[in-house]
Specification:
Strand content: 15-25%
Number of strands: 7
Largest sheet: 7 strands, mixed
Mean pLDDT: 89
Strand order of the largest sheet: 1-3-4-2-5-6-7
Radius of gyration: 16 Å
Order of helices and strands: EEHEEHEHEHEH
Helix content: 25-40%
Structural class: alpha/beta
Low-confidence stretches: 1-5
Bound molecules: guanosine-5'-diphosphate
Shape: globular
């Protein structure tokens, strides 16, 4: 059954895009960053959290996704959409810039409270995903994994992927968690929202 989204995240609005940390909004308050391979369902997860159809753009072309996009939830809290990765068509130097801006953001952003890592449940824990978990852990930033598009596979497959990803992260990364999720069916919304609320230190 679909779970409802509280009104709090509905007020979220786009503020600005940045190429690097220098261009980012002042480093205070709370930020939660979303990261994932292209086509993993990252934009859809932001849109469903905020109950808006096109806040974060879905299915964007590679050239337009290389920026860090900032969204204001309230005066103290921001959602940050980090550039997607895994485009075959992206040249090597662009990949390098992606890595540098991401490492920079994860390492130096004081107001970063958590990273939501979106992975298509049918293609979990690819090399770049593992890097994100490692970098975040090195910076003591907790990671919450959304296994997205859960509606595309059956219950047995869902459980087996959830178990294997849980086992993997439990073994190596103390500050990580994982859940099943579907933007399409609104599955897992409550668990996702509770994690966001906790990182934003909201009592709603
Ligand atoms: P992004 O590139 O990671 O931002 O991915 P998008 O959010 O743009 O999603 C990529 C494609 O997957 C789009 O066609 C979405 O409609 C689709 N998609 C996203 N989430 C889901 C989901 O939960 N279930 C299904 N079936 N499709 C999804």
């Amino acid at each position: 059954m679909a779970e409802s989204c509280t009104n709090f995240y509905r007020q979220t609005e786009f503020i600005t895009s940045a190429q690097n940390l220098k261009q980012s909004p002042p480093d205070h308050g709370y930020e939660i960053a979303f990261v994932g391979r292209s086509n993993s369902g990252k934009s859809s997860s932001i849109n469903s959290l905020c109950d808006q159809k096109s806040l974060a753009r879905t299915s964007r072309t590679p050239g337009r996704t290389q920026l860090i996009n900032f969204f204001k939830v309230d005066s103290e809290r921001r959602i940050v959409d980090l550039p997607g990765y895994g485009y075959a068509a992206v040249p090597k130097d662009t990949k390098m810039i992606w890595q540098l801006s991401l490492i920079d953001y994860l390492e130096f952003r004081e107001c970063l409270k958590g990273v939501v890592l979106v992975m298509d449940i049918r293609h979990p824990l690819k090399e770049n995903d593992l890097q994100i978990i490692k970098w975040s852990n090195n910076s003591s930033i907790p990671v919450h994994i959304l296994l997205s598009k859960t509606d595309k596979i059956n219950k047995t497959e869902q459980k087996s992927t959830l178990d294997s990803v849980s086992k993997h992260i439990e073994k190596s990364y103390s500050q990580s968690s994982v859940q099943l999720f579907s933007s399409l069916k609104k599955w897992g919304m409550q668990e996702f929202q509770e994690k966001m609320d906790a990182w934003f230190e909201l009592n709603i």
